[in-house]
Amino acid sequence: MALLRASRKDEIPPGTIREFQLDGKNVAIANVDGKFHCINNICLHRGGPLGQGEMEGDCVVCPWHGWTYDVTTGKLQSNPAIGVDTYPLEFHGDDIFVECG
Question: Is the pTM of this model over 0.90?
Answer without folding.
Answer: yes
